[in-house]
Amino acid sequence: MQVKELTVDELKQLIQETVEETINSILFDPDDNKEIKPEVKEQLLNSLKRTEKGEKGISAEEVAKKLGLNW
């Protein structure tokens, strides 16, 4: 399947899953010798917990608007 064949909701879900996987790999990969500040780790863990509870974050449209991008 190609990205152009995805619905908006399917694309959003794919992006969300990719972000979660990336955060988890940063936080929990013991073979990766990168250091992460404790406060950043706490923020990321809190974000994951909120997502798991079904809470919604800032929409892509809001982020784009704050950054002055056309969405």
Structure, explained:
About 60% of the residues lie in helices and about 0% in strands. The chain has about 70 residues and is an all-alpha fold. It has one domain (about 5-65). It is globular.
Rough shape?
Answer: globular
Low-pLDDT residue spans? none
- The rounded Rg comes to 15 Å
Total of DSSP H or I helical runs spanning 4+ residues: 3
> How many domains is the backbone divided into?
1
Secondary-structure-derived class: mainly alpha
Number of strands: 0
Overall pLDDT level: 83
Q: Span from first to last CA? A: 24 Å
Strand content: under 5%
Q: What share of residues is helical?
A: 55-70%
Order of helices and strands: HHH
What characterizes the major β-sheet? none
Concise account of the structure shown:
By secondary structure, the protein is mainly alpha-helical.
Task: Explain the layout of strands and helices.
Blueprint: H1 8-28, H2 38-52, H3 60-66
What labels describe this entry?
71 residues; mainly alpha
